[in-house]
Amino acid sequence: MKFRETAKTLCCFLICLNFILTINAQNGSLPSGVSRGAAVEGVTEYQLPNGLRVLLFPDQTAPKITVNVTYLVGSKHENYGETGMAHLLEHLFFKGSPKHPKQDAEGNLHGARLNGTTDFDRTNYEETFPATDVNLEWALSMESDRMANGYILKKDLDSEFSVVRNELERGENNPFSVLYGKMLGSAYQWHNYGKDVIGVSSDLENVPIERVQAFFKTYYQPDNAVLIIAGKFDEPKTLALVNKYFGAIAKPTRVLPKIYTREPVQDGEREVWVRRAGDTQNILAGYHLPPAAHRDFGAVEILWRILGNPNTGRLRKNLVETKKAASILGFTSENKEPGFGIFFAELRKEMPIDAARAALVETVENLTTNPPTAEEVERARNNILKDVELNLTSSERMVGILSNSAAAGDWRLAFLSRDAVKKATLEDVKRVAAAYLKSSNRTIAYFVPTDKPDRAEIPNVSDTDLAAIVKDYKGGTPPSAGEAFDSSPANIEARVKRGNVGGLKTAFLTKENRGDTVVANLNLDFGDETSLMNRSAAANFTAQMLLRGSAKRTRQQIQDELDKLRARVNISGSAEGATVSIETVRANLPAVMRLVGEILREPAFAENEFEQLKQEYLARIETDKGEPTAIASNKILRYFSKYPKGHPLYVAAFDEQISDANAVTIADLRAFHRDFYGASNGEISIVGDFDPKEMAAVTNEVFADWKSKQPFKRIARQYNDITTLNENIETPDKANSTFSARLDLKMTDDDPDYPALSVANFILGSGFTSRLTMRLREKEGFAYNSGSRFSAGALDPLAQFNISAIFAPQNVEKVEAAYKEELVRFARDGVTAEEMKDAKAGIIERLKVSRSQDAGLAGKLNGYLLTNRTLAWDAELEKKITALTVEQVNGAIRKYFTPDKITIIKAGDFAGAKKKTAIQ
To answer: Which residues contact 504 (CB under 8 A, 6 or more apart)?
Structure first.
């Protein structure tokens, strides 16, 4: 009896102990003072005693980690005289801190991509790097140190102002960017959403450093920040590191300023005109909308897709298909406070702007007489949910989504907004159309007196309401977790299965991905140098027409089917071949592949679609004709190209491109497809979650019997020993200018000197702390971006050094002088041992990250199928780079790098800049 009682007591004790251990395992052992908050679909929130919110999103699929610190401060928080301060501070934030004075150099060593962005409601800083404990600890140490002690110094403000102004002037070259800023300024008369995030040059030039420092001390604090970590990491260990570095920062004593300005209800149409040099016309129509957290926003998103989807929206049908516009676009802002939605139309010069404006307004504002249909609502819903679901499977994309949602009020809006789209009914869409799409809420027009104003009351969401909205929200079932994938060349090579299906070479790499995602890359190779003569224009249009309709489906039906299959498909092509990229999920890949086969093999080539495509193409070329970067690029490509006109590799001038486009007919496209398209020669690689046997069978079913009529012979690229050129091209009334330089070398990437030149290029202009970047941006402040690129082919002895910069036209002589000084020093003195060490580490880490991206890996495997390579080539390249000596790199520089043989092209408003300087 005693034994039974003892056993019973022991049993109860063990049950209780197991219960306690289970609860502890679920909650985790949290650092002292750290509290656990909401958890939704794999994302868990924690909070530190100092107010820092932490979002952890473990994803074992890819061997990388993204760390993001989102400060809930943006251009909305700027005061009078401070426009652009949030963005200016973003630039200064990279100038270092006591423990991390050289962040860019450290980023190179850790293989990290560093970036920062500023918006209306937030500023964020992000780095993505290979998943190691050392890299993660470095990132957390750096972000916490600059949060607490970031250098915000007068000397950095003086140099960085020129860089930011250069970025501002770069935006002034873009017609859409200019018009967007003017439209917002007219739509918002009082609220700071009406101010361009980049600010006005007078504020940037004159703001005292003390105001910037005060802005930093006020807003760059733990209780105004959200730390987001996503990728392959150990959650308890990471939380302990977060607490170690960020927990040491004291809780602020200051009280955050309260933003209380609300934009008054708009009471009449507004219009603004911008008249500048350019080659295309643009129309922007803006409407005030509720905040992202409002209950109407899901229906608003659907409404905007119905109207503004560039491929299938009503505006496309009523403007593009009727030839009133070349292209259209619609999008909404997801703001903390009442935001806006935009409709955009691009017109060629000869298109009457009044007719396009009338058609746009009629389409958008006549929804009471021509309301959305149930079919349109469902189609738009599927299109949105496809994008959302694919984005939620990527930890790197999720970081951006969570950052933007946190800025809009709460990170859980990332999921709630999706749910709102799912729940929105046809009646909801009709209601929001009637509420917000009215003339008095539109900004293109002017004030019109009226006896009965019809105003759109824009609702807000208070913090209290928002707390109620997100309280106890649990979300749906998170996607499957996937596997921890080793992206080393040896592991990839061990898992790749190669074969042949008909004329296609295949490479299949199966891996368990988050959300069962899979990507595929298909190349079709066709034609030869003779058969492809004078067929380039037809080839380009043929590829672009394929997604615009098949013999069995219209463009709309193809898009609907892709949305239902949760798939993204892109097709591009040239005279030499076509490339298809696919992103979808395991269960749908066979159906997507069959649909792609239908699209490739049975194109409709509808006349109306072809005319729309031609108008879009001509509008793009006409825009490029006035853009400095496009002009310089076309000039340098043409100068180095020695192929005769009509050759498949010939580089056409802009006017030739326009002439060729006008001359090509739908019959030419049908003939090109009939003569060249087929699967007799090509490559297909699939990476991700799929059944290789099933996909081999599907690939055979879709492509094995599809034969190409013309034989395929790869066209070799030729090296040309050209005469050096240095030329200025005038582009009047453009606020920014471009520097482009090129040096060709006779070598392949198997050349013994290729690894040394790759390292040399990294030091010269490819790394974060490259010589060109440090000279042109950090030291001189001349260029917003500058750098170099080195590439070499696998099959043809042709390699290129390309150098570029974007800068203000008045600095052209200083920029060229600085470039020449750096190039001469580089050729004369070579590189140092310290530069070598950092460059080798940075290149190796970049290669690791590139192999962790499924789409890039599929493309690499396809390229290797064509060149008969394996990942052993990558492993050997890494060994060669690691073994390089300073003497080898400097020897390669002296052998190949000759500054006086570099061709330089500059494009910009240099004459106008001289006139402005003379007037001043």
So the answer is: 522, 679, 682, 683, 684, 699, 703
Give the E-state strand segments of 407-552 in sequence order: 442-443, 497-501, 504-510, 517-525
Of the candidates 669, 663, 633, the one whose C-alpha atom is nearest the C-alpha of residue 651 is 633
- Rounded to whole angstroms, the Cα distance separating 647 from 303 reads 47
Would you say domain 726-919 falls under CATH 3.30.830.10?
yes
Strands (E), 526-575: 568-574
Phi, psi dihedrals of residue 664, rounded to the nearest 5°: -70, 145
> What does the H/E/C string look like for 456-521?
CCCCCCCHHHHHHHHCCCCCCCCCCCCCCCCCCHHHHHHHCEEEEECCEEEEEEECCCHHHEEEEE
Model confidence pLDDT, tens digit, residues 187-206: 999 898 999 888 887 777 88
User: What are residue 66's DSSP bridge partners?
Assistant: 128, 230
Sheet containing strand 339-348, strands side by side = 327-332, 339-348, 280-289, 442-443
At the top level of CATH, the class of 489-703 is alpha beta
The CA-CA-CA angle for residues 533, 538, 541, to 5°, reads 145
Helices (H), 327-408: 353-365, 374-392, 395-407
Given a cut of 90, whether residue 330 has pLDDT beyond it is yes
pLDDT tens string 633-663: 999 999 999 999 999 999 999 999 999 999 9
Count the Cβ atoms, other than its own, within 10 Å of residue 291.
Answer: 23
Q: Is residue 151 within 8 Å of residue 91, measured between CB atoms?
A: no
Structure tokens at 462: 């208070």
Residue 168, pLDDT score: 75
- The H or E element spanning position 417 is helix 413-423
* Region 44-246: CATH code: 3.30.830.10
For residue 395 the two structure tokens come to 């930890």
Q: Which of 343, 337, 406, 297 is nearest to 193 (CA)?
A: 337
Residue 114 tokens read as: 């560093």
* Mean pLDDT confidence for 747-766: 95
Helix (H) or strand (E) segment spanning residue 789: strand 783-792
Is residue 911 within a helix (H) or strand (E), and if so which, with residue range?
A: helix 910-919
Q: Chain centroid to CA 499: how far?
A: 34
- Residues sharing a CB contact under 8 Å with residue 216, sequence separation 6 or more, in sequence order: 89, 150, 152
Q: Outline where 269-323 has alpha helix (H).
A: 297-308, 314-315
Q: Helices in 565-703 by DSSP H: which ranges?
A: 589-601, 607-624, 628-640, 654-663, 666-676, 692-703
Instruction: Average the pLDDT over each of 5-19, 139-153, 389-403 and give the range with the smallest value.
Output: 5-19
Nearest to 433 by CA among 264, 559, 317, 308: 308
User: pTM value?
Assistant: 0.85
Q: Which among 676, 535, 704 is positioned nearest to 603, based on CA atoms? A: 676
Q: Read off the pLDDT band of 15 (50, 70, 90).
A: very low
What is the distance between the alpha carbons of residues 376 and 384, in angstroms, rounded to a whole number?
Answer: 12
With a CB cutoff of 8 Å and minimum separation 6, the contacts of 406 are 53, 55, 70, 72, 122, 226, 228
704 torsion bin: left (phi>0), alpha (psi -120 to 50), beta (else)? alpha
How many other CB atoms are there within 10 angstroms of residue 264's CB atom? Answer: 12
Residues facing 783 on adjacent strands: 807
Cα torsion 520, 526, 532, 538 to 10°: value is -40
How far from the centroid of its chain's Cα atoms is residue 41's Cα? Answer: 24
Classify domain 280-470 by CATH architecture: 2-Layer Sandwich (3.30)
Instruction: Tell me how far apart the alpha carbons of residues 305 and 296 are, in angstroms, rounded to a whole number.
Output: 15
Those residues whose C-beta lies under 8 Å from the C-beta of residue 491, and which sit 6 or more positions away, are none
Taking a C-beta distance cutoff of 8 angstroms, is the pair 533, 539 a contact?
no
Q: Which of 328, 336, 408 is nearest to 364 (CA)?
A: 328
Question: Measuring CA to CA, how many Å separate 718 from each of 269, 534, 562, 648, 901?
Answer: 59, 19, 40, 13, 18
**Tokens representing 811?**
């600095």
- As beta bridge partners, residue 40 has 43
Whole-number Å distance between alpha carbons of 252 and 217? 10
